[in-house]
# Entry
Amino acid sequence: MAYLRLISQRLVMTVLTLWGLATLVFIMIKLIPGDEAQVAAGPGASPEQVASVAKRLGLDLPVLQQYLNFLLRMLRGDLGTSVVSSKPVLTELAAVLPSTIELMILASIIGTVIAFPMALVAATYRGKAFDGITRIIAVTGGAMPAFWLALMLQFFFGNVWRITPISGQHSFGISSPNVTGMPTLDALLAGDMVGFLDAMAYLILPAIVFAIPFAAQVFRLLRASLLGVLASDMMLPVRAKGASTSRMVLRHALPNSLLPTVSLMGVLIGGMVGGAILVETVFARRGVGSFLANSVALKDTYAVLGAVMFVGIAVCLVNLVADIITLMLDPRIRGAQFRAGAK
Amino acid sequence: MTLVLPTAAPRRKANFTAYELTVFGVVVALFLLALIGPMIAPADIYTSNMLETLLPPSAEHWLGTDDQGRDIFWRLVAGSRLSLFATVLVVILYSIIGMIVATLATVGPRWVDELLMRITDIGLSLPGLVVSLGIATVLGPSLQSGIIALALTGWPMTARILRTTMRQTMEQPFVEGARILGVSRTRLMLKHVLPNSLDVLIVKWAGDISFTMLILAGLSFIGVGAQPPSPEWGAMISGARGYMSIAWWAVAAPGAAIVINAVAFALLADILQVRRDPSLQA
# Structure
């Protein structure tokens, strides 16, 4: 029952967070310079047309009424309409979301594969050269501007050495039927190995750009937690019974260090959606991030704010899932710690 | 037998390693460069020189020239004040907001504390870069918008950490003493509790500068921060992106400048953190 209570507390917090975000977005919409109805009606609309659009959008109502209507629209999943394409923001985002998810999944896998062995070795040989060097590499990796790293990798691997494709999602003519919206998965579903490898080649560089800071942060936290567990009293009997170093690290320290690491990975994966704005733009990939960046470039403020709302919801849900996983991994976890897991 | 009475507590020695002194030295040098950069840079970095466009790095132009024939090295030097000081300004602004929120939460009645901390929780769980992008878009693209947007989204972590520390400081005997002496509530907070709680933020500031510099450059790169032809580093990368295939150094150089600054401050944060918590030491 304690689980249910904690999870429902966490759900209430998520709902409050989304309400806070919706309020913020509403305030921002009201702060946009220029007349909302004029923008919606388009340039060159007559005053009568503007007035009728204002009436249709409920802009002639008191602000409080508008705010309530806005919240109701959000509840129905209406994130507004793009002024440029005249399509609902939600429809456009739903079409490109799988592409972003595909990128995030591969990035987290690469990052985890780099970070875990490095942290295990660094913690085992604490104070040795490997530990010192990896610490500096991790700090450096965490301080790389993602968009710049993306540009440099793209230039050298794509333009100069021609190892990977430069930008896009798949080569011309090699494209599987769109089922899931993820080019790699679509190719697999169609049984098309050539298409799969092709899509992977386009995916690898952007995934590496995300994986580097991800690996750096996971490495630092995991190493610190491993050292903490290895120094704790519970390791005394393990050491006394003569367990080997590798057994101490892998069987005893690692399971006890996983919790904070899983929590952090949740936060970092949520944060990738923000980073996608920069990285997807550089690699010209379809996705939530490049949608946001394009809307900024086109000065489509309503689409920007709708996408901000969408990303906020996505990040809150990722955090929620990470917290529930943390909770299920550790029955000891309780109230304050549980809430702190959100960040 | 003589009895030696200690006259004063022996001074604690800092004992910095060569590595730590190097990092401190680099950080000081970066600040000095930002201070004097715009003064020592030649004036022609703001004007076009169409005879010298897109020159590769050479003895005359150490980092080459951009599409307007402007010397990239000197533009970086001149722009370091914009990039570093704007970053520091963002951190100062949101630290002030964080301090105000933490102080109100500590002195205020329980419901104020509860309300402010719930708002802080909400702020913590929102993606900072995305919300900043929204705010900066609404304010209109400029470096000022970027600074305001990041200041408005950066404060929750500071508020959260500071409030916890201030609560602990409140329990200390010297605060009790000051209260018994009849120090007013406001004075107690501003003169005693707040200054004695700030040291938790010092480690955080170094890391924050590193992180904020990356986000601020990112906002300029998307186009909602500083605008070309400003020599702000993110804007320089954004401007040079279009001709990267013929002059890659115009993108590589400003990025390297950002990396040097961000890494220096991240290493500083790492050193300070290990000094506070030696169990992390390598």
In short: Chain B has ten helices and no strands.
